[in-house]
Amino acid sequence: MGTKTTRIGDDAPEDPEDLLPERSVLSLEEYLDMQAAIANRTRFEIVYRLSHADELTPTELDAVMDVDDSTLHYHLNELRDVGLVEKRVRTERDRDGLYTYYRSTVLGDVILEHGLEELIRRERDFREAYDSSRDGD
After folding, report:
1. How far is it, in rounded angstroms, from Cα 108 to Cα 43?
2. How many domains are contained in the chain?
3. Concatenated DSSP letters of 11-40
4. How far is 78 from 93, CA to CA, in rounded Å?
5. Strand locations in the chain, DSSP E?
6. What is the pLDDT of residue 116?
7. Which residues contact 105 (CB under 8 A, 6 or more apart)?
8. Residue 32, number of CB atoms within 10 A of its CB
9. String of b and e for 77-90 (b: at least 16 CB within 10 Å)?
């Protein structure tokens, strides 16, 4: 039986924890928690909509998403817990009687833009690079 040898490139640290800056604000586990949170379809859509709309109320989110109110609030809380979404509560009602607004944080915008959105945008490149039907055109 052969042995599997794993070689890390010269520019990549041996331990993934070493990717963090010397005085990182977040731990590797916290970054991984963010990645896991946005991997859920509903949470991805919430961050996507908030990132592209500045801020929305739960009522506005509910109007454009096909989820019930309790599910929406559960996912909003999950996203808040990992730092991808923030909640802003007004002290006075606005003209529609609404107090609570949500928006994507900088981390939410970055993980979306440079993570999943980038991967989706580059699908065409990946498909062409790995298309087995092409005979070295």
Report:
1. 11
2. 1
3. TS-SSGGGGS-TT-SS-HHHHHHHHHHHTS
4. 25
5. 55-56, 85-89, 100-104
6. 78
7. 83, 84, 85, 86
8. 13
9. ebbeebbbbbeeee
DSSP-assigned letter for residue 56: E
Asked if residue 4 is part of any domain, the answer here is no
Residue 77: in which H helix or E strand, if any? helix 69-82
Q: Tell me, what amino acid is at 119?
A: L
Asked, for residue 63, whether it belongs to a domain, the answer is: yes
pLDDT in tens, 38-60: 999 999 999 999 999 989 999 89
Write the pLDDT tens digit of every residue in 66-114. 899 999 999 999 999 999 999 998 777 666 666 789 999 999 999 988 8
Tell me the CATH number at 109. 1.10.10.10
Rounded CA separation 93/23 (Å): 41
Domain range for 33:
26-129
- Report the C-alpha gap between 105 and 80 in whole angstroms: 9
